[in-house]
Amino acid sequence: MPKIDSKKIKKLFPIFSKKENKNLVYLDNAATTQRPKVVIDAIKDFYETHNSNIHRGIYDLSEKATNMYEGTRLHVSKFINAKSSEEIIFTKNTTESINLLAYTLSDNMLQKGDRVITTALEHHANFVPWQTMAKKKGFILSVVPVKEDYTLNMEEFEKLIKEPNVKLVCVSAMSNVTGTIPDIKKIIKRAHEVGALVMVDGAQSIAHEHTDVQKMDCDFFVFSSHKMFGPFGVGVLYGKKQLLEKLPPFLYGGDMIKSVKETCTLFNDTPWKFEAGTPSVADVVAFKKAMEFIDELGIENIKKYEMSLAKKAVEMLKKHKQVKIIKPKNLELSGPVISFVIEEIHPHDIAEVFNKEGIAIRAGHHCNQPLMASLGIPATARISFSIYNTEDDIKRVDIALKKLFKLFKK
Ligand code: PMP
Fold it and tell me: Quick check: pTM over 0.85?
């Protein structure tokens, strides 16, 4: 049995002990997780004890704040097994990390006529920037379709990767709609064989799967702190150092320079040349506590526990013949995210009825309209698990579904 004691863990998250949330079943973890007290306390502690701006002050308070901020960078590099902390850039979120790459790669590594491959599984954050840059700069954007079983169509990928001038592949390590985990190792191997770079969107995988960027051999990896128990406002872009060094800055201003003359500017080294202006210091500092929290529980324990819940939830959903599950049948090929649809009941109505029962789920296109179009559906209802969810939560969903069917006479 997995080593996670979810009832005990739930007590570490203050939101669940608030009077107004007594009845709350939180199943929207793919949108954002809840925060444990250690993370919330770390934000408070920073403002109460260490608050000052970083990298600039020649006084103890600022030096301490700088060390704390850079300490998180070091911690991130260890968390994902980067070669060094210089390969870690702090951004605002996954979206900003991908935009940073889209703009800077388009500036000096991608040429007109080059091909960029993305997939139908991608969140808009990993689609719209590439589509926009393709239009602006004349790249050819190809999209790997999904199969009927909601896995990536690797035969089509194989065809696309053989096209001339493929320079970049942008793929998610876990879909936020179907939970699908593509064969990232194979994708990276094939891309490198044709000389293309690979950017992996780890926004969904980071809290559920062990990440080792060296083993994976991806060129870039992006994720958000808020999906792994950390604060809002902190994103990460990992890049191989030799590649980051070749990229131009994304934003210009203070903190990203070595020297400025009236006629020219010498930019700072990587990663600081990508971090213009004052960052979200307290949030970055507290983010370290979120990674420590995951490490204490053990990512493999987390994964086992969440997948055992996902399995039980799928079994429960299958008992309702009205429900169509939008997720690979083989649970090994996906994470703890379950989308479903019910004929003639709009996902918004499902979410509304669930809300009345105290259950928070997500309903809509999940920022993935191309996938919805290829599946021929406008939206899904989505349940996504984390470590504080319990089997009782699944029972509550079962009850809510029964009420929904009664209401809609299904
Ligand atoms: N990619 C994936 C797979 C996601 O699930 C999300 C968030 N739902 C994003 C990117 C964007 O993350 P953020 O909103 O933190 O920028």
Answer: yes
